[in-house]
Amino acid sequence: MEISIFNYDFLIRSILAALFGSITAGIAGTYIVSRRLVFLSGGVTHASFGGIGMGYFLGVNPIVGAALFGMVSAMGIEYLSHKQNVKEDSAIGFLWAFGMAVGVIFIYITPGYTPNLMSYLFGSLLTIGGGDLAALMVLSLVMILFFALFYRTILYISYDEAYARTFSRHVTLFKYLLIVLVSLVIVLNIRIAGVVLVLSMLTIPPNFVMLFTKNFKKVMIWSVVAGFVGMTGGIAASWYLDIPTGATIIFVMVAGWVMARIIKGKTGSSRSRRDIKNKLYRKEVIYKDVK
Amino acid sequence: MQEHNWLLRLENISAGYNGDTVLSDVSLQISDNDFMGVIGPNGGGKTTLLKVMLGLLTPFYGEVIFNRELLTPYNIGYLPQMSEGDISFPVSVRDIVMSGLMQSRGAMARMKRADRERSATVMKDLGIWHLRNRCLSELSGGELQRVYLGRALIGSPRLLLLDEPGNFVDSSFEQGFYDMLKELNKKMAVVMVSHDVGTISAYVKSFACVNGKLHYHDSGRITNDQLKDYGCPIQLIAHGDIPHTVLQKHIDGDINI
Description:
The structure holds 2 protein chains of 2 kinds. Chain A has helices at residues 2-34, 38-58, 62-82, 88-109, 117-122, 130-149, 151-159, 161-164, 171-209, 216-241, 245-288. By secondary structure, chain A is mostly helical. Chain A has a single domain (2-288), classed as ABC transporter involved in vitamin B12 uptake, BtuC, CATH 1.10.3470. Chain A is globular, with a radius of gyration of 20 Å. The relative contact order of chain A is 0.14. Chain B is built from 7 helices and 11 strands. In chain B, β1 (6-17) and β2 (20-31) form a beta hairpin. Chain B has helices at 46-54, 93-98, 113-125, 141-153, 171-184, 197-200, 224-230, and strands at 6-17, 20-31, 35-39, 61-66, 76-79, 159-163, 189-193, 206-211, 213-217, 236-237, 245-246. Chain B has 2 domains: 1-75 and 158-257, Rossmann fold; 87-156, no CATH class. The chains are: A mainly alpha, B alpha/beta.
């Protein structure tokens, strides 16, 4: 009796986590993949580990600390990237390691045992509580509303920021709002996949969907669907095989992407060849008249 | 000179990047029927001039004044030299063309049926209708340029700024392109940056020569003497009726093009 109730509760929690996780990660993932912000997001993810360590040390919810670190580092990178004399990728690499270092130091000086540390590194659905789920649900609603209301603005800023500035005064504001939302999505999904794996939750579904469609809105919607299928599949597989859930989810997603890639095979590769050709052509012209 | 309403006035503009001055003390007025060719050497500030007009670059000194009755900063069509957009971005040709409509909309803009119809008209005019559902990585350079031209034109701007439109325009489209600009000029002022002085001088009504400083000519004709003062690397000037005139090579000017 007790076991079945536990199972039922676990099932509900898992499915809700998969649902909210795939909604947030699918939408945010489409944005970061399209805008090539994956490395930046990796920096934010690892910087947030500093907040997890701080949370342990101060005895507050590590996710709150992670959210704080994630948002501040995301805005910091966005800000630094405007400065001409800072190389953005170096700034990201710096924050990436610095956040991890801060986290390790805090955890070391935290007296006594640090429970669930592994779950923050590699994710654990078992430790997801009602509070985490509620936060993910609210964030899912915020993401849907924000992207639905400002769809065109987000699309055009993401595609060509310089041109967007010719029609909007709020480009910078939107960029900051978007990067803050992305960092919140990453941090709340750390509960599911962990610091080490969470980024793949965001990046694999859009890459999978982009094999089939190149429409921003469709990529977003289908990334949510693909993410949900991948996550529930991963949860089920981890349950039956008794292996870690976060890792299994990522494994299932990558396997799905590889299979789709093989099936798409020819069309995909010819398209990317054209991509490269066009890019070379573009470079030539850009150098004809710098400034 | 006929009297025309002015649209935009630059007064004593100095502008540049990272503290380096590219344009110094530039003044210019654009009238509502202007068709102005902007010429000058590489790094002379042609693109910078357009960016100042668009408000993409805040000048160090000087003022950009709009005749608000006729023109707002958001009623300018702009064809960048090369769009900063990432061509592998998941977006269709139609959506890019429609982005030109955002100038008159707020951040929560929706595209309606009328907008789709307007985009269809523009795409058909430019011969890119058959590409409407393609993504940008599937287009050739010339097709891409036409998509960006569609984006600049869809909002029916009062002022059209073109930065090196000749770069990508293939020869089959070129004649039609310049004729189209001539047609558009009946409805809007056109300012065109170009290396290809030979071709554009048959179409433009005036020239602005930019090389740090700006020199304005209210005719499409530039004399050899005038050229000497500016250090512009112009080798060939063509006029509507007269056969091509080959001018003396400039002593201190580099040869570009």
